[in-house]
């Protein structure tokens, strides 16, 4: 093998290895079901189990239980310190459809780009809601954090029922020097068929965000909170879009 051919093959091999180890971006217009192959789309799934049917634990409504084994629903059954699920894919502007279930008093969250949280919480029956209730945009990171944004209405259903979030999210924008020129924005968030946010700007990462103290970026992963109580997700679908 001559030197030129050796260098070409070596370069190709290095590129292939690099690509296999680097988080990849979502292709535009392609709906991706992040639970289609169990938990293979996620980096660390310790503390999570899979099933095909999930119900409230009949002996303890503060817990969930897998009533039918399988591979379609991601579940944290008890109040354990399960890992935050983190996608291998990175995204910018996306649409997302998410179906979830919480037990009584439970708490989770969905972080877009790993930084901007829509709260998942048992808020059933509450007449006054805040940023920390289900569908709320959580308060900002840091000492000068604002108070977040509560949902317009409380659309929560009872613990043990399946709920749905439909989200259109626009990533922050940056100039050629990496300076942020526009904040991230939740263009539209619908909870169980009711509009709860529209054109809601997020001035920075929310509390408990990944890399919350570091400069924001143009792309990032989906991050699902798993350490604050029992929760189940049966649909997490995302699609890359261009929101100019």
Automatic annotation (TrEMBL):
It comes from the Bacteria. The keyword Signal applies. Residues 1-27 form the signal peptide. Keywords: Signal. GO terms for molecular function: hydrolase activity. Residues 31-239 form the 3-keto-alpha-glucoside-1,2-lyase/3-keto-2-hydroxy-glucal hydratase domain. InterPro entries: AL/BT2_dom (IPR010496). The keyword Ribonucleoprotein does not apply. This is 3-keto-alpha-glucoside-1,2-lyase/3-keto-2-hydroxy-glucal hydratase domain-containing protein. It comes from Pontiella sulfatireligans.
């Amino acid at each position: 093998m001559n030197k030129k051919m050796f260098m070409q093959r070596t370069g190709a091999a290095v590129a292939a290895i690099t690509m296999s180890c680097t988080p990849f971006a979502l292709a535009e217009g392609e709906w991706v079901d992040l639970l289609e192959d169990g938990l293979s789309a996620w980096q660390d799934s310790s503390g999570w189990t899979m099933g095909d049917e999930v119900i409230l634990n009949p002996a303890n409504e503060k817990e969930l239980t897998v009533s039918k084994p399988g591979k379609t629903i991601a579940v944290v059954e008890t109040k354990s310190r399960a890992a935050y699920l983190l996608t291998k894919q990175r995204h910018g502007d996306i649409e997302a459809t998410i179906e979830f279930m919480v037990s009584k008093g439970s708490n989770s969250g969905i972080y877009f780009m790993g930084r901007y949280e829509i709260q998942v919480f048992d808020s059933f029956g509450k007449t006054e809601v805040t940023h920390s209730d289900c569908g709320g945009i959580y308060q900002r990171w840091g000492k000068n954090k604002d108070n977040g944004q509560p949902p317009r209405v409380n659309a929560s259903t009872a613990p043990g029922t399946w709920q749905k979030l439909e989200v259109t999210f626009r990533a922050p924008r940056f100039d050629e020097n990496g300076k942020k020129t526009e904040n991230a924005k939740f263009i539209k968030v619908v909870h169980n068929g009711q509009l709860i946010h529209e054109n809601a700007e997020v001035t920075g990462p929310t509390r408990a965000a990944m890399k919350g103290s570091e400069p924001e970026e143009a792309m990032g992963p989906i991050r699902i909170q798993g350490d604050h109580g029992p929760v189940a997700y049966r649909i997490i679908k995302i699609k890359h879009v261009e929101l100019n």
